[in-house]
Amino acid sequence: MANFDLMRRLALEEGGKILLLVMDGLGGLPREAGGPTELEAAHTPNLDRLAREGSVGLSIPVARGIAPGSGPAHLALFGYDPLVYEIGRGVLEATGIGLEVRPGDVAIRGNFCTVDENGLITDRRAGRISTEEGAKRVALLKDIQIPGVQISIEIAKEYRFAMVLHGEGLHGAIADTDPQQTGVAPLPARALEPAAEKTAALVNQWLEEARKRLKGQEPANMCTLRGFAMEPGLPKYRDVYKLKAACVAVYPMYKGVASLVGMDVIETTAHDTTQDQFNKVAQIWDQYDFVFCHIKYTDSRGEDGDFDAKVKVIEGVDAALPTLLDLKPDVLIVTGDHSTPATYRAHSWHPVPTLLWAPATHMPDRAQAFGERECMVGALGQFPATDLMPLALAHARRLQKFGA
Question: Do 55 and 142 fall into the same domain?
Fold first, then answer.
């Protein structure tokens, strides 16, 4: 992983510019024995050219055999050992939509749900209501006041919202109130450690008031709370790597993890296409040393089990890629945070195809295309994803020599 003490000693204020393009859930599997993966099946002339001119390999997000969540997988790409630095989902969701999470605060991810006349859950996601409908429910909850705590709450996307508790003596060790099944009632907030008893009691007061206010608001007539967490105090990019860094992403969680490591989060909309995102990278390129650009729908289509749709997303990224290449980055890394094979319909443990293109500072390997099988024999080999940031800095000539 990136040794932060070493990085602080060796990182230089000046050097080349780095672009990290992450296609979420990029890695895949063949849908029939001997056939291509989604990446191999896609028509990707730009990525294939970069593979021929650069070096390829396979990254391991957490450890061999471990299927990672998106939060830890992105931390690894940013150089943070996800087994050392853990971020709760509530913090990621809250910071991703712009809520401030200070030391001592508790951040929570919420889902609107549907309950019947007996208070039993019939739909854990409230029929996947629109973001506009979700915002109307959040408006009903904004002025709930509980003695001893200040509460900030905002809509995230569709049926999801985030909230932050500000106050003295709060603790995030609280179990989710989502029972993860229908036909049962939402669970009460339950402290997992004695230090969280006070916070659990405050949360239960809030839930009771929320229940009253949401009554009659079908299909989103109740809510559950998940991912209770506190600000983790991560080392920042500017301090560790001497980089002024920015994030261009659409989904809140990826904005959240980028914000927590000290990146500026560039404004986007939920309707931004890949081309829209690349245009925004181009607009801010001159202002930053490092830009992280995140593409979500490779992962979504993999989770849908739609092999062909995932192929089309990859092809769409390739078609838009000239916008990024015109910026002439000194280092371009193309990878995923994890694999999401359409045949598996979930995050998997398979190593992730990775391409490093830095024409001024490295020698190409023998890869002829960007795909899993080519990456298996590429010069980068199989390596921990946490090694990517030191590699990027080195190829950007932003690391000084170690030792005499």
Answer: no
Answer yes or no: do 79 and 175 share one domain.
no
Q: Under a CB-based contact definition with an 8 Å cutoff, are residues 390 and 16 in contact? A: no
Cβ contact 291:280 at 8 Å: no
**Residue 404 included in any domain:** no
As a whole number of angstroms, the distance between CA 263 and CA 249 comes to: 12
In this structure, how many other beta carbons lie within 10 angstroms of the beta carbon of residue 104? 15
Is residue 188 in some structural domain?
Answer: yes
Cβ pair 69, 347 in contact under 8 A = yes
What domain count does the chain have? 2
Instruction: Looking at the structure, tell me whether residues 78 and 191 fall in a common domain.
Output: no
Q: Are 290 and 11 in contact (CB under 8 A)?
A: no
Indicate if 117 and 142 belong to the same structural domain. Answer: yes
Contact 113, 128 (CB under 8 A): no
Residue 226 three-state SS: strand
Dump pLDDT digits (tens) for 335-387. 999 999 999 999 999 999 999 999 999 889 999 999 999 999 999 999 999 99
Calculate the dihedral angle through the C-alpha atoms of 285, 340, 65, 57, rounding to the nearest 10 degrees. -50
403 falls within a domain: no
C-beta separation of 201 from 190 below 8 A: no
| Owner of token pair 């995230």 | 156
Helix (H, G, I), strand (E, B) or coil at 86: coil
Q: What share of the chain is helix, strand, coil (3-state, %, to 5)?
A: 35, 20, 45
> pTM of the full predicted structure?
0.87
CATH number at 388 reads 3.40.720.10
Q: Are residues 195 and 245 in the same domain?
A: no
Cis-peptide, bond into residue 252, ω within 30° of zero: no
pLDDT in tens, 285-313: 999 999 999 999 999 999 999 999 999 99
Strand 331-335 and strand 150-157: the pairing is unpaired
Q: Give the separation between CA 374 and CA 334, rounded to whole angstroms.
A: 14
> Domain check: are 76 and 224 in the same one?
no
For residues 66 and 143, membership in a common domain is answered with no
Q: Which domain holds residue 298?
A: 4-87+234-395
